[in-house]
């Protein structure tokens, strides 16, 4: 079931496009923003509201890497693993994250504090290596800096 | 030396609000454009020889000229491609965060030239600061009457929306971007019909890169000849060039289009870091062929880089140094491309993961002598003409040139059954 507030926000997006279905990505974003991830139940509820089949909506949801079809932690770490960060040593940052958090790419800490994911180029290659936690960008990373950064996220 | 794109950008202070932007001459191009006919603007842009800064390098005015102009009642769209996701590319971020009104002004003039009434900024998810600034700038432009109904009393209407993406490199391909805007999987479309005729929701649509659109106000204000005079080389205008990798000063500079690789690396980026040697570079993002030492004096314009066997692409260079394994470097690129293949066509969906696996086995010391031939075969089978869009051919560029320039390093991995850099 979608909440009244979710429906209100989704309907606002539907009004902006000529075809109802065209707002389905916005709908996925709205629900994920509210609930943290997109469950099967959410897929069915959104699809019904968008006049789509659940399968069609799921084909869209699973295409985009920032729609989460599995539960995620309270904070999401997106570590850039693309070429400039490779040259500047993102692998050391990844090793350090694994040591500190005891998780690999695609995993969530048991206390649900962090989910760690690889992400293609964050577009800040002159300050590699870089990562994002939630909406925050961190650049010119070193392992020392990383420890301080992680403390900020509970 | 003139730097029209970055003259009002100072990363140490907030970007200009509308009032301050107008004070330094902002939105003058809109006032000027409405005194001209749409066709006159398109002609001017065509004559300026402005080429698409997203990587393809096609003449922007010619691209616009394919939009049907005989039916004014028809909905048409203009989309700013701000989905900067080419690995090693960070130029549009500066324009988006540094001067959002310049982009909006460029979009208004461009929309007027093709008589589009609805426009979108398609912004990648990761650019959070840009999203906030663009949203704010759009609101200011509406309030000042530069967007909305009957702009400056001309009868011209233009809506502008910000669409933030949810990932996937494919969204940068213009027809895939249109599918994403329609709420679909971002797979590419068959061309023809070209988006200029049948684009977003089946209507005529122009998709232009952010840097391309930011040039438009300056061309309209100063003329086509002025734009050409910015660079004495083969291509017109300035370019945002970037350098990343093991240099002393990584960064981004707006320079004439006739700047050489050597000038970029030695003068602007301050040379290689102590103890590191230049081994090669991708001149314009992940999907461009390697250039090596013998190419350092070529000019970074479309023609010269193409003549050297590569592409200017986005103009943001990634340097391969002598402490970085070329096989690992190319593997990282192919890992990216294999992951980002949308799966729509077979050569790309099947060929890229295969390529990635071969490279990984070579890097891990498990490569076989025949693997190099297998990789070369892929560069042909996944090359231009065999796939639906440019993703796989782009992915093959650093591989084919890597095999050419660093063949000894590949062979060493296979012969010694290990990576000499590890």
Task: Describe how the helices and strands are arranged.
The complex is a heterodimer of chains A (154) and B (422).
Chain A (H helix, E strand, L loop, with lengths): L3 H11 L9 H12 L4 H11 L3 H8 L13 E6 L2 H5 L2 H12 L5 E2 L5 E6 L11 E3 L2 E3 L4 H9 L3
Parallel strand pairs in A: 1-3
Antiparallel strand pairs in A: 1-4, 2-3, 4-5
Helix pairs in contact in A: 1-2, 2-3, 3-4
Chain B lengths: L17 H6 L4 H6 L4 H11 L11 H6 L11 E6 L8 H8 L1 H15 L3 E6 L4 H16 L15 E6 L9 H8 L23 E5 H13 L1 H6 L8 E7 L6 E6 L4 H8 L9 E5 L19 H6 L8 E6 L4 H15 L5 H18 L7 H11 L9 H15 L1 H10 L6
Parallel strand pairs in B: 1-2, 1-4, 2-3, 5-8
Antiparallel strand pairs in B: 5-6, 7-8
Helix pairs in contact in B: 3-6, 6-9, 13-14, 13-16, 14-15, 15-16
Question: Can you characterise this structure?
Answer:
The complex is a heterodimer of chains A (154) and B (422). Chain A has helices at 4-14, 24-35, 40-50, 54-61, 83-87, 90-101, 143-151; strands spanning 75-80, 107-108, 114-119, 131-133, 136-138. Chain A is an alpha+beta fold and 154 residues long. In chain A, helix 1 packs antiparallel against helix 2, helix 2 packs antiparallel against helix 3 and helix 3 (40-50) crosses helix 4. The radius of gyration of chain A is 18 Å and the shape is elongated. Chain A starts with a helix and ends with a helix. Chain B folds into three domains: 18-229, 3-Layer(aba) Sandwich (Rossmann fold), CATH 3.40.50.11540; 238-321, Ubiquitin-like (UB roll); 326-416, NADH-ubiquinone oxidoreductase 51kDa subunit, iron-sulphur binding domain (de novo design (two linked rop proteins)). In chain B, 42% of the residues lie in helices and 11% in strands. Chain B has 17 helices and eight strands. In chain B, the strands form two sheets. In chain B, strands 3-2-1-4 form a four-stranded parallel beta sheet, with helices on both faces. The mean pLDDT of chain B is 97.
